[in-house]
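Take a record.
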Amino acid sequence: MDLVPALDEPLKKVLGPPTAKVMAEHLGLHTVGDLLHHYPRRYEERGQLTHLADLPMDEHVTVVAQVADARLHSFASARAPRGKGQRLEVTITDGSGRLQLVFFGNGVHKPHKELLPGTRAMFAGKVSVFNRRLQLAHPAYELLRADSEEAAETWAGALIPLYPATAKLESWKIGKAIQTVLPSAQEAVDPLPESLREGRGLVPLPEALLKIHRPHTKADIEDARARLKWDEAFVLQVALARRRHADAQLPAAARRPAPDGLLTAFDARLPFTLTEGQQQVSREIFADLATDHPMHRLLQGEVGSGKTMVALRAMLAVVDAGGQAAMLAPTEVLAQQHHRSIVEMMGDLAEGGTLGGAEHATKVVLLTGSMGAAARRQALLDLVTGEAGIVIGTHALIEDKVQFHDLGLVVVDEQHRFGVEQRDALRGKGKQPPHLLVMTATPIPRTVAMTVFGDLETSVLDQLPAGRSPIASHVVPAADKPHFLTRAWQRVREEVENGHQAYVVCPRIGDEEDDPKKAKAATPEGEAEKRPPLAVLDVADQLAKGPLQGLTVEVLHGRMHPDDKDAVMRRFAAGDTDVLVATTVIEVGVNVPNATAMVIMDADRFGVSQLHQLRGRVGRGSAPGLCLLVTEMPEASPARQRLDAVASTLDGFELSRIDLEQRREGDVLGQAQSGARTSLRMLAVIEDEEIIAEARHEAAALVEQDPELTGLPGLRTALDALLDEEREQYLEKG
């Protein structure tokens, strides 16, 4: 890699092994370049103090404040029985609030001498509550003396940068380390083409790095941020544009449905009209299938918007054109569910090769890891001869033994659950690269789609098919109002008495293998927070003996034998089971129109999009749905606000936006990138929508002209750094 030597220098050479080790382990920083790209989270002005009034609980914070008073107390304890124990209490203020600092034992001497009333300093520690007051116990601190040469140098200018820090490494220590390596910023190679940089009035990269770490004015920070955001957006979009460009060069067989074939026969017997959205998305997909390079399309659809119908019509079109289609599902439960519903939708069109089969019929086979040997042999034979036009399976489809006659289309359901290698292995099964349709029911804001799935064309289904019922959602605060929970179980009984069924979802299975932390005793003060999450097996037992006595209650979870899982799902689908107590295995694709109620226990332990997914399992028939989110979290907590947001809207795109605003960006992208560390340190996906869209446009134009980036060594270097192994994987996965 032709990285600039100065920026590629390992930190242990520059800062010494102990500091370098902490930086590598806790902050993921290994080289001088990494450290220069570790930007301040915010800045403090000397004359302006942090709002102590707004400190977050249990978080590691850095504050700049003034000592109001300091008192040394003596006390008796087990270690110092004669009243020789010492505790120093220091109160600091910033005009907005006061905060108590405490030091004990031998740790009191130095702060007692240094933290005199009127002294200003930076303090770092974890915020806790003692006697109902916020405090920092044994905080690290750094005095801010205007007269000290070194401090004046370190905190050059009026703005003090505060860095994302850890308990092992305070913000000011990171600041000092950055001052050490800052001269190397001059050697940073600029990834932006000069014409783009000048056209948009962006400062050069070395100047941006200096201004972000050592700003003299707020304008310096703005200049630096504008520039560094563009870098991140542009380099990522160039990587995605190159991927799209490479895909467009691949050959693929065009698949056009026969005029009066299988698809026409299927459409003719549909008992309902497709929504306008389904028709539009189908047109986009058919246009892609008719070209001679592979389709790469992401189909986003609200829960229950009819994505499976759109995917099935695409598969039928490919079968019509003489090819085969494979649908990959993330779990066996879902593969079986898809197989059942597709065979039902197709009727005798799915009975190719049998006596009762219709004229244009094909065979629809299921292939999963747990099938019996004979059934498996037959399925494999049907695939290799081409007898089966459609196969639905789990990643068992990817094994070497599985051979296709002519694989034309791969549909991947719930994309984020499939690894890169798996997708590529399935692609390799075609004589030429097959067309690819990726479906997700997790609505992704447009900017995230551009950032994470930027190498896929995107189609969105946002209308619900006719006949879908509204879902009412309510938060049940079990700790504050236990009678609400009693009422919740009454509501479930009422639904069952009216001939419907219900789900109860829990975060854990409860056979203990899945919870090594179970052994840790709960602490009395944090009972709700510390107790283990509720488990399927325990809850099912309590419900069957208690509030739901007399109803048929069954359990479903991921560690059951596949045949048992299938049997449970079949009984539930047939209406033989009143209440299904399950883990999130029911999160995607499970379709039982008669199930109208869902109670989610410990709902605060699930993410926003997961709750939205789960809720989508009810209200799938003509009767209205009900979703109850049970939590013990207090009213003002962020967890409770999250649940209130889910209860307040059924719009998945709105929720995904809320989700993104509430969580740190990196988590969201990290999830979508299969755990890869996000490269976005400065870019905020929701706020910087405009920059991302413009960067995408610029990147596409650049790659069109010069796919190899021959004239841009700086950009190639930045791409190499971005596309290390895990990034490469995330893009491959896209």
Observations:
- DSSP finds 28 helices and 21 strands in the chain.
